[in-house]
Write a structure and sequence with these properties.
alpha/beta; two-stranded antiparallel sheet; 31% helix; seven-stranded mixed beta sheet; 291 residues; Aminopeptidase; 9 helices; 15% strand; elongated
C-alpha cells in the first residue's frame, strides 16, 4: 500500500560493487553482521568562469542582421583518476582543444574576409559540468535569438577515420548541402552521426540553441562507430596533443571554414529540415522569416 511504499522510500541504503559475488556469499552465510560506514559530506566551492564572445560584422547591408554562431567549449575535466602510467592530467586535446581551434580558425578567416552574414564566435565554459555555458548564453543572449539563424558547433571525442568529418545532425538542417560540398575540396567526406545510440546531438552545446529553435549541428572529427579507437582517448589522460594527426586536422579545419563561408554567403537562410523535432520551435522563433 501507499504507507508501505512511503516507508520503503525512506529506508537508508547503499550500493556495493561485488564483482565476483564473494561479498554476497559472505553475507548470506553470516548469522550476524557488524559493520561501520563513514560518509563525508561533499565539499562545495563557488567558481567564477566566463564564456568568451567575439563578433565580425557581415558585409551585406541586409544579411548582416543575421548571425551565424561558431561555437565550441574550451573546458575539459581537469585532474582525475590516474591511468596505467600514473598520469592524472586530462588534457582534452580532442575534447575540446580541436573544437576550440576550429572556431578560432573561422574567426581568423572572417576577420580578414567577412561573409555577407555576421559572425558570432562563442567559446563556452562549463560544458563538461552539464552544458552550463551554452545554457546560460541562450538565457542571456548578447543578440536577440531570432537574429541568430544558425549555430555551427564543434565538439569532439575522438576519430577513427581520417577520410571523414562527422556532422552530428547533418541531414537535420538545410545547410547540409553546404557542409557536404565544403568537405570535398579537401579530400574528406561529410557524414551523419553513425552512432545515434550515443545521443550525441543532445550531449553538446548545440542542443541549447536547438531547443530555442536555432538550427544547430555539431562538426566533429571523423568516426564510423563510437568504438575503442574513440573511447581510449575520450575523457582520458592520454588525450594529448602529440597523439593527433595534424595533416588530417588541417583538412578538417579548412573544410569547416569553407562550410561556414558557404552558409554565411548563401542567399537562403538555413533552417531545420521539415519534420525535425525542432522544426516548430524554429518556426515560432523566426515568425517573420519562415512560412
Amino acid at each position: 500500500n501507499n504507507d508501505e511504499d512511503s516507508e520503503r522510500s525512506e529506508l537508508c541504503h547503499i550500493w556495493l560493487l561485488d564483482t565476483n559475488g564473494s561479498l554476497a556469499n559472505n553475507l548470506s552465510a553470516a548469522t550476524s553482521i557488524n559493520t561501520s560506514l563513514e560518509i563525508s559530506a561533499p565539499q562545495q566551492e563557488t567558481i567564477y568562469t566566463q564564456n568568451i564572445i567575439g563578433v565580425v560584422e557581415g558585409s551585406d547591408p541586409r544579411l548582416k542582421e543575421e548571425y551565424i554562431i561558431y561555437s565550441a567549449h574550451y573546458d575539459h575535466v581537469g585532474i582525475g583518476t590516474a591511468d596505467e602510467t600514473g598520469d592524472v592530467i586530462y588534457n582534452g586535446a580532442r575534447d575540446n582543444a580541436v573544437g576550440t581551434t576550429t572556431v578560432l580558425s573561422m574567426a581568423e578567416h572572417l576577420s580578414k574576409y567577412p561573409t555577407k552574414r555576421s559572425a558570432l564566435f562563442i567559446l563556452f565554459t562549463g560544458e563538461e559540468k552539464g552544458l552550463i555555458g551554452s545554457r546560460y548564453y541562450v538565457e542571456n543572449p548578447v543578440i536577440p535569438l531570432n537574429q541568430m539563424v544558425f549555430c555551427f558547433n564543434s565538439d569532439n571525442a575522438g576519430y577513427n577515420d581520417t577520410n571523414l568529418a562527422t556532422i552530428v545532425g547533418l541531414p537535420r538542417t538545410t545547410a547540409a548541402k553546404h557542409i557536404t560540398a565544403a568537405a570535398k575540396p579537401f579530400g574528406i567526406t561529410a557524414v551523419d552521426d553513425p552512432a545515434p545510440e550515443q545521443g550525441l546531438f543532445d550531449r553538446s552545446d548545440n542542443v541549447a540553441f536547438a531547443r530555442a529553435g536555432i538550427p544547430a549541428p555539431t562538426y566533429s572529427l571523423g568516426f564510423t562507430a563510437f568504438n575503442g579507437d574513440v573511447t581510449k582517448y575520450y575523457h582520458r589522460p592520454g588525450d594529448e596533443a602529440d597523439t593527433l594527426d595534424y595533416d588530417y586536422l588541417l583538412k578538417f579545419f579548412r573544410s569547416y571554414v569553407l562550410a561556414g563561408r558557404y552558409i554565411g554567403d548563401a542567399d537562403e537562410t538555413p533552417f531545420w529540415t521539415e519534420g525535425d523535432k525542432y522544426f516548430e520551435a524554429g518556426k515560432s522563433l523566426y515568425k517573420s522569416k519562415q512560412p
